[in-house]
Write a structure and sequence with these properties.
The chain is α/β, with parallel strands linked by helices and 191 residues long. β3, α3 and β4 form a beta-alpha-beta unit.
């Protein structure tokens, strides 16, 4: 299996960090680290590199857009995704100007978290990333191949039974339809 993607989630609400940790699990190819504010996040970014940063826009002290600008200035290969409950057009324009990969509005669903992570990772510029790990899609391809084989075997074994069901049901359906047409014709003739 390929290396895990390191994700930093910056939000003053600890529940958000726990949600990301639950959704972006190691099984899905991620390791999630959390920070309560932008200053803590910058400290962690200086100590280790991350493949992706999610940050809330409104936090005490430095806001998420300023954090995004600092991350993009020091590590332009690291995608930054803004998450917010304050989804104004002004905030979105500021975030895009700061070079963020995506702007996601709360409340967040597990699907939204996964999709925004996958989108940001695909949007990352591979030629700027030092020793970038393989894309997350490669992790899922192996699982999909296994599931595809199991599904193929199951369909192969079920095919004779499905064919038998069609062979038995087809004459019955035909007779029912013939009876229905005959009944309609009889009613039309008797009126």
């Amino acid at each position: 299996m390929s290396a895990l993607r390191k994700v930093l989630v910056v939000d003053d609400d600890a529940v958000v960090g726990k949600s990301f940790n639950r959704v972006l699990s190691e099984k899905k190819g991620y390791v999630v680290t959390t920070a309560q504010n932008a200053h803590e996040a910058l400290k962690q970014i200086r100590e280790q590199s991350f493949d992706l940063v999610f940050t809330d826009i409104k936090m005490p002290g430095m806001d998420g857009v300023e954090l995004a600008e600092r991350v993009r200035a020091s590590q332009p290969w690291t995608p930054v995704v803004i998450i917010t409950g304050y989804g104004t057009v002004e905030n979105e324009v500021r975030a895009k100007a700061a070079g963020v990969s995506d702007f996601v509005r709360k409340p967040l669903s597990p699907e939204m978290i996964e999709e925004s992570a996958a989108h940001a990772m695909r949007a990352a510029t591979p030629d700027l990333v030092p020793e970038m790990t393989p894309p997350i899609e490669q992790v899922h391809v192996e699982v999909m191949k296994k599931e595809s084989r199991i599904k193929s075997i199951a369909l192969f074994l079920a095919a004779p039974f499905i064919g038998l069901a069609y062979a038995v049901m087809l004459p019955l359906v035909g007779m029912v339809m013939l009876a229905k047409v005959g009944l309609q014709a009889w009613k039309a003739k008797s009126q």
